[in-house]
Amino acid sequence: MKKLRFGMATQIFVGLILGILVGVIWFNDPRVATYLQPLGDLFLRLIKMIVIPIVISSLIVGIAGAGNGKQVGRLGAKTIIYFEVITTFAIIIGVLLANAFQPGVGVDIESAQKTDINQYVETSEEQSEKSVAETFLHIVPTNFFQSLVEGDMLAIIFFSVLFGLGVAAIGDRGKPVLQFFDGVSHAMFHVVNMVMKVAPIGVFALIGVTVSKFGLESLMSLAKLVILVHAGLLFFLIVVLGAVAKWAGVNIFTLMRYLKDELLLAYSTSSSETVLPRIMGKLEKMGCPKAIVSFVIPIGYTFNLDGSVLYQAIAAIFLAQVYGIDLTIVEQLTLILVLMITSKGMAAVPGTSFVVLLATLGTIGIPAEGLAFIAGVDRIMDMARTVVNLMGNTIAGIVMSKSEGKYNPIKANEVMKQSREAKVAS
């Protein structure tokens, strides 16, 4: 008799369903958070523990093996331009959808569940005081070890790129350093496999706490907003990212099946970080060069948040409609421009979406207090936008590999096909 085996996606899905059931049965019971929150936090801490070592080691090995600084500079310029174009599309789609369907018209804000957003207000004020020049200067660390402690990914990436170029420049003398970081990279990917074994428990705990705290009925008063955000994200994923993937020689649905474990995990935890190492590994298996993957994917986590900016555009106009504020064309264009800037400058800040919205609302005259209205359902929308963020960055890695002439779509499709067949056989 053949022994039943449950793949990672099945285990995570079971954890997701059980977490929802626990949250519904023990709704508003503080014991759920008391017992389950530590389990969810433990899983997230395990993931955060391994992300930075993997990014540093993979980036140094990739850059050192990529060649000279001109190649890295060219790749960096193309990557940033691509990110800006794609995120601008996402913002415009969000604005158009919010204007077309008007999810905030007729909503009674007095019946909103009030949530404390003071922590986001303070962070937004700190960030708004920074000029554009200061934001870019912040990318260059004055103390690399301080950046490691703070988890400042852009500063870490900047140092790692320069260090990788330095290792490449010294030739044979840099080989021991390269071998060391190559060993670290391989070891950390084995650590990822160990950590992922507890992913279903982490998902169960995180979802259980969320549903218990807010309840499924919290969706009702904001159902139109939640539905519109999900519809907009789905449209962007299938139409916009689907078209880009097709240009690169990949079918969006085939790619999603290939990444189903990672997508389900990112969705249930609302965190792209949980799958960063696995996404990088799968792209390399598809034939994307390590140098490109280790450069594009981490940067995308701060510069290419397609799902987040689309949501922010819809949410900003939604709140304007709730307050009865009729935004002019100029004000909506201002909203687009501000989101283009703030979504990049604040990408590494905790609670990014709320912080970006706070920084944006003031520029078009919308009361910041309105964010408390949507805070209760933010987690539900966060799960969906995390999936779009993840897919956007994955496709960016493929696009940049193709643009450098180092990607074979035939090989990539064969790898995805073999992966699917292997899972069916198991």
From TrEMBL:
Keywords attached to this entry: Cell membrane, Membrane, Symport, Transmembrane, Transmembrane helix, Transport
Keyword rRNA-binding applies: no
GO biological process assignments: dicarboxylic acid transport
Entry GO terms, CC: plasma membrane
InterPro entries for the chain: Na-dicarboxylate_symporter, Na-dicarboxylate_symporter_CS, Na:dicarbo_symporter_sf
Membrane topology of the entry: Multi-pass membrane protein
Main location: membrane
Compartment list: Cell membrane
GO molecular function, one term: symporter activity
TM region positions: 7-27, 47-67, 79-101, 153-171, 183-207, 227-248, 287-303, 309-342, 354-377
Protein known as: Cation:dicarboxylase symporter family transporter
Organism: Priestia flexa
Species lineage: Bacteria, Bacillati, Bacillota, Bacilli, Bacillales
